[in-house]
């Protein structure tokens, strides 16, 4: 009798129809994806603090210095959508591994650079392979985790890396430049890449390709050309002027190409960016959120570092350490938001709260002065903006890929990175122009004869506070616009059932 009653308990429980077994290695795969994503995010800021040292060592001019950053941004921003669709067509593991190997090789060449041309070429190649790697990593995450609770935890980790990576890049860049060499800001990528390459080779299984998919060549040409012109135009405006023909000419061509791309996507049978991906309100809201927050977040990182180092006299290492409270809160709130808040409230209140927290932090920062103390003037705003950034980045990755079929995961992931890159380019140009105009106006209004060092310090602080006011306005507008676009309530997953049916049909 006992033996008879025990027998049924020993039998495996049958799975529900259409369900797929969870990959037992999924959490290790998450660690691999996080290492790869951290490498890409770090590289957006880690070189910023190393640029003066690299310029001194390689003897290039201040005018050339911007190209070390711009070369990466141009190739990365212009190729993201193409590389995202490529991941869907040839398989995400292939593009993920290729991106890792290529990024590591380009980093090694950049670290060993013996001149300006070699360094800039390496940075452009980093951007190319980063464009291949970033959407592949996020789409792997979106297709690996199926259970809603586990998916929330996984996206929480990913969001924490995305939110905290920029600040960690400043900290790491300062430490490596101060204690080793600027070249280690490039060589450090080899460590992350080696971990991710070994992990991906051992853990990530074969990924399905899009059946019958073809590459939309006209779409690739128009969107890549349009993004290239926009990123270059905004970068040129930041270093020259909005009024120069080369600035508005590139911006006009970029807009025209992107309009042509949008029209073509609605007509072609195999679109590079299927309209169904961006016409969903939640996904569109996520892409717009990352674009707006990316534009304003630039002010937090760049001008706050300027203030700490130029005005307060902090070293690169101390500036990085000063960012740690923001980094810690960003990671914590991203994880908390995805695991606790998103399943219950959805992305809309997280975006509104995150944008308003960031706006409040920016307003708080407008109280800085020439001799402000860290605890009294910086610590509070850094913690507030860290919490706001965590809430925003915590929802973006999950919402931007919510409900998409596996064969669209790569291009949906690329759309998130494209929004962030374009937002950063817009913020760079806009806020640099605002800061320069504010400083010039302050000197003109307050100087009586030759400007004194004290007046120049006050003008610099005035330019920073002006930028922080503008950032507050951008975040406040983002709270209204993105909050209105996103649907209220928790995310629905309309793509799950079709995805499972498609997977069953393919098997």
TrEMBL record:
Keywords (A to Z) from UniProt: Cell membrane, Membrane, Transmembrane, Transmembrane helix, Transport
A GO molecular function held by the record: transmembrane transporter activity
GO cellular component: plasma membrane
Cited PROSITE patterns: MFS
Subcellular location: Cell membrane
Transmembrane intervals: 27-47, 67-87, 99-121, 157-180, 186-205, 217-235, 247-264, 285-308, 314-337, 349-366, 378-401, 463-486
Protein name, per record: MFS transporter
Source organism per UniProt: Actinoallomurus iriomotensis
